[in-house]
Each structure stands twice: as C-alpha cells, then as structure tokens.
Write a structure and sequence with these properties.
Length: 554
C-alpha cells in the first residue's frame, strides 16, 4: 500500500511539473484564446522540424492515400483517424494534441451551418461573401444540414456584417427559406444497408470490427460540427468572463463516437495556476464556486444563444453547467472551475490511439456490446461509464506481452525528461514514445485481441486483484468495499468505486457468453461473429456449461 501511494505521489509530482510547464507557456493559453496567430506559427514549425516517415500506415476513410515506407517491415499496421496529422504521407510529429485541436478550431471558425432544401442555390448566394472551400452534409433526426467552410475567416466576417442580427450564433447558422426545393430525381438513391446486414456480409470478424468502427467512430463531419459549437460557445464566453474553454474527453481523445457530446473545461486566467491545478486534485468537497453564480451564467448564455433548449447546473466537487442545444440535439458540459486533469488524460489517451489504432477499433465494439448487455448507460449509476470501459480496454493492451503502448507512469516520466531539454514544448514527440516499448507486437489480429480481451476479464480475480493503468499491471487489492478496483494517476480514490457487484459479475458472465458466440462458425441462417454478440436473443441461447479453456483459440 505504501509503495503504491509513493508511486501515485511521484506521478502526481510529474503531473504538477507538467501543469506548471504549461502554465508558464503563454503559447498554450493563446492556442485557445487567440487561435489565428498561433495556429499559423505552429503549422509553419511543423513543416520544418522532425518530419519522419511512417512505415505501414493505413489511413482512415477520411483520407485518400495510404503510404508505406519502402524497405521497412517494422511498425504498426494502424489507421490514423485524425486527418490533420498527415501531410503527403509524412507524420508531423511536432503537431501535437494541442495543435490538432487548434487546427480543428481554426477550421470551425471558417464554417457556417445551413439548413436549406437546395444547397446549390444557397451556396451560389454565399459566393458573394467568399469562396466555399468545403461542404459537408450531416443528417440528423430533424433534417439534413450542411456545413460550409470558407477559405478565409474574413469571408465569415463579410457574411456576418450583411446580416441584420448581430447574435454570434445567428451569424453562423442560416436557414435559407427562399431556396427552391430540388426536384425529385427519377432514380432513387440506394438506401444504405443497416449495420446488422453489413456485419452479416463481412467475410470474417476482423472485417466486422472494421465495419462497425467505420459506422460509429467520430468522423470528420461530426467532429467539425462539435468544434463549430465549441467556437460559438467560446466566442460568447469571452464577453462573460476572463477565462477560456478547453475541450477534453471523447471528442478529442481519439476514441470519440458520432454520438459524442462536448466536454469543456473552464480555465480562469486570473486565478493562480498552482491553485487552479493543484487544489481540485486533492479536494473532495464541492468547489467554492457559487451555484447562484453558475445559474446566472447559464441564464446569460440562454439569452445570448437561441440554440440553447435547456440548461442545468449540476452541483458536484467540480460543478457543471449542462447545456442542451439545437438544432441538432447536442449536449455540452462545462466544468467550473476546470483543472488540467481532464485535458491531460485526453492527451494521454490520444497518444495511445496513435500508437495502436486497434485499441480504438476494439473500444468501438466493446462500448456497443456493453450497451446491449446492460453494462453501460449514458447517465451515471452503478454500471460502467464510457471512460471506465475505455480504461478496461487500455489496461488489457498495457498488460499484453510485448505491449504496443507504455504505462502512464512511463509516459509522464518521458514527458518530464523531454520538457527539461526543450522548454518551448510540453508534449513528447510520437517517435520518442514509440521507443519506450520494447519489441512491440502488432501481429495479433483484431479477432484474436477481442477473444483475448473477453478471456482476460471472464476469469480475472476481481476479489483479490486490482488494475493499475498507472503501472500497466495488476496489484494486490487494497479495498474490500468495492467489487472492482482500478488505480489511476490523477485520483486518490478508486475510479471504478461506483460499479457494484451485480455489474462486475455481469461483465464476467457476458464475457464468457461473448467467447462462446465468437467461436461459433459462420452461418448463412444465423447471426455470427460480433453480430451475435450485439443481439440479446442470440446471447440468451448460449449454453454456459462450456469452459473457457475449451473456447479460447490461440
């Protein structure tokens, strides 16, 4: 226990050093508060420093080319989801997590959201203010929307100045009622096959997992929509406070889904950085922020932004303003006062997603599987949250032989060494992180990894052993009050203390059922592979008398 506490305190010391480095660097604050000047500089530097080719990189569906380093047979076969980190097949390793967010925000500031029956007609009208660079379509429950990105932010300013309403949102959301509806085409467009049918048509489980990932992961269109709302909320907050809003969570950690909401961290620039970052880490009492003050901020936001359907103030250790937005039924959580833990955790997970994208592909299935089996819900409770499910997947990858990802402790130590030699940067380049893992293996197929994941947790001794994402291995359990214990470097308490014995047992039971279903041969008349794991009817048919040893195939 004492050794574990010393390790946690050591990593917290590294974290505080990291926080101070970021607080002393004005560039990081300006990344979010004055995006235009700094993003250009960062992009310029990225082109001139440490550009290294990647071997065997398969790009995501958002990108058009795949690049393979000639003569090299090392490195992961992975999909790079974030399109902004590649240029001509070369990884910009100086373009870190903050730079990626800055580039996305810069693009969002050049974008307007349009609802129209004839996008071609509307774009012709927009041409008088500037040249559209890109148009993305996004279908929501209440209709089809279009996001039009201009080549320059001045084009947005030209458009805004032509509108009678000065409201920041009204200037970025246009309903073109004058556009004439397009005539119906003679030939109907083919309907996209439903996901279940697509999974049935796949040749193997690996194809199924890729298909599900493509169907559910946070794509370019939904990411731009999230950052469009972020840019609007950010602009409004500048008129209400002296702080900035910083995104964290699934929308920026490399594991986002198309259903992801936006989590924002409020950073008070006037507050002492040490007090801002350290106090929330050791405090388990509600912050001294006045709830009435937050209600006042919520009321002001609703007056300034007609997109807000509803707003709620959630009193907690770190209070939250939860906003429900229209027109696309979107939710934003703003933490007051924010600390740097959330963004740093997001950056660590983002790094893992780049090191081995198989983690993201498996997580996309595990989350959907957990929802099907009652292990996960969107609201808080005695079940697993999305963060906890991701922690289970990452820990499984950490403890594998020849793991492709290092422990969080190793990442923090490496980051501290790197920043000591270069005060202008905080994040460690990806090629340095890759060197931390000894002989990493990327040979296992997705099918093998998935079966190993279920086998690992189906037989895991949760009564006596605990998980440590900090160290990347198990340790003797130190609590008897929680059915499952998981150690994380930025919290003293068990991050899975909310999960009860019912859902811990359910995790193991459903993992065993999943193994049985995954080992069934493909049938033309029945669901098979991951499709059967996502069907309650198929799981109810499973015979639980079969042992795990009989099931698992190396």
């Amino acid at each position: 226990m004492a050794t574990s506490m010393r390790i946690i305190l050591f990593c917290r010391a590294n974290l505080l050093s990291l926080l101070r480095s970021r607080s002393n660097s004005s560039k990081r604050v300006k990344t979010y508060s004055n995006i235009n000047s700094n993003s250009n500089t960062g992009a310029k530097n990225a082109k001139t420093k440490n550009e290294r080719p990647i071997s065997k990189v398969v790009l995501s569906d958002l990108m058009s080319e795949s690049v393979q380093e000639k003569g090299s047979d090392e490195g992961p076969v992975s999909k790079v989801v974030l399109s902004n980190i590649m240029t001509n097949g070369v990884l910009k390793e100086e373009l870190d997590h903050h730079d990626v967010i800055a580039e996305r925000l810069k693009t969002a500031r050049r974008t307007v959201l349009i609802k129209t029956d004839n996008i071609d007609h509307s774009v012709k009208k927009l041409n008088q203010f500037g040249s559209p660079e890109n148009i993305l379509n996004i279908k929501k429950e209440n209709g089809l929307y279009h996001m039009v990105t201009f080549k320059d932010e001045t084009h947005i300013q030209n458009l805004a100045s032509s509108l009678e309403n000065s409201n920041v949102f009204v200037q970025r959301f246009i309903i073109d009622t004058k556009a004439k509806k397009k005539k119906e085409q003679n030939q109907k467009e083919d309907q996209e096959l439903c996901l279940t049918k697509q999974l049935e048509l796949c040749e193997n489980i690996d194809e199924q997992l890729h298909c599900l990932y493509k169907h559910t992961h946070l794509d370019e269109t939904n990411s731009l929509l999230i950052f469009l709302y972020y840019s609007i909320i950010q602009d409004v907050f500048r008129t209400l406070s002296n702080g900035v809003l910083e995104p964290f969570g699934s929308c920026v950690n490399g594991f986002g889904m198309n259903s992801s909401d936006l989590d924002l961290n409020y950073i008070d620039l006037k507050k002492d950085s040490f007090e801002r970052d350290l106090c929330p880490m050791f405090s388990h009492k509600p912050e001294s922020v006045s709830i009435n003050r937050l209600k006042s901020i919520k009321t002001s936001l609703r007056k300034m932004l007609p997109i807000i359907n509803d707003g709620t103030v959630i009193a907690a250790r770190i209070p939250i303003i939860r906003l429900s937005l229209k027109p696309v039924n979107f939710q934003i959580d703003i933490a007051f006062p924010g600390d740097r833990q959330g963004p740093i955790i997001s950056e660590i997970f983002y790094t893992y997603s780049l090191l081995d994208n198989r983690i993201a592909i498996l997580f996309a299935f595990i989350k959907r599987w957990a929802i099907t089996n009652g292990l996960h819900r969107s609201n808080a409770g005695h079940w697993f949250s999305s963060f906890q499910l991701l922690a289970l997947v990452i820990f499984y990858f950490q403890q594998r032989p020849n793991s492709s990802i290092p422990s969080i402790k190793t990442l923090l130590e490496c980051n501290q060494r790197y920043t000591s030699t270069d005060k202008q940067r905080v994040s460690t380049p990806l090629y340095v992180i890759k060197s931390l893992t000894k002989n990493p293996s990327f040979e296992s197929s997705l099918e093998t990894l998935l079966k190993e994941f279920f086998e690992f947790y189906a037989v895991f001794d949760f009564r006596s052993m605990a998980l440590s994402l900090l160290m990347g291995h198990t340790f003797q359990k130190t609590t008897i009050t929680s059915p499952i214990q998981c150690e994380f470097p930025f919290e003293f308490h068990n991050i899975m203390k909310n999960v009860d014995s019912k859902h811990t047992a359910l995790l193991q039971t459903q993992s065993k059922k999943a193994l049985i279903l995954l080992n069934k041969s493909k049938s033309t008349n029945e669901l098979w592979g991951i499709g059967s794991c996502l069907s309650k009817d198929e799981q109810d048919k499973v015979d639980m008398k079969i042992s795990i040893k009989q099931l698992f195939i190396d």
